[in-house]
Amino acid sequence: MTQAATASVGQPAIPPLHDCRKAFAQTLHDLAAADERIVVVCNDSVGSSNLVSFARDYPGRLFNVGIAEQDMVGVGAGLANGGYIPFVCAASPFLTGRALEQIKADVAYTGAAVKLCGMSPGLAYGPLGPTHHSIEDLAWLRVLPDLPVVVPADPAETAAAVRWAAQAPGPAFLRISRSPVPDLPPTVQALEPGKATVLAAGTDITLIGNGTLASRCLNAATLLTSEGVSARVLNMPWVRPLDEDAIIAAATQTGGIVTAEEHSIHGGLGGAVAELIVSRSPVRMRILGVPGQFAPTGSTEWLFEHYGLTGPGIARAALSLLGETGG
Amino acid sequence: MTELRSRPGSTAELGARRDWLEHAEAADRSEHLAAAATALRRRDLEMITAARMGHIGGDFSAADIVATLYLGVLRVDPEAPDWPDRDRYIQSKGHASAILYAALAMVGFFEDEALDTYMAPLSPLNGHPNRRHVPGVESNTGPLGHGLPVGVGAALAGRLAGSSRRVFVLTGDGELQEGSNWEAAMAAAHHRLDNLIAIVDRNGLQQGARTEETNGLEPLADKWTAFGWQVLQVDGHDHEQLYQALRGTPLAAGKPTCIIARTQKGHGVSFMTDRVEWHHKVPDDQQASQARKELAT
Question: Which CATH class is domain A20-176?
Answer without folding.
Answer: alpha beta
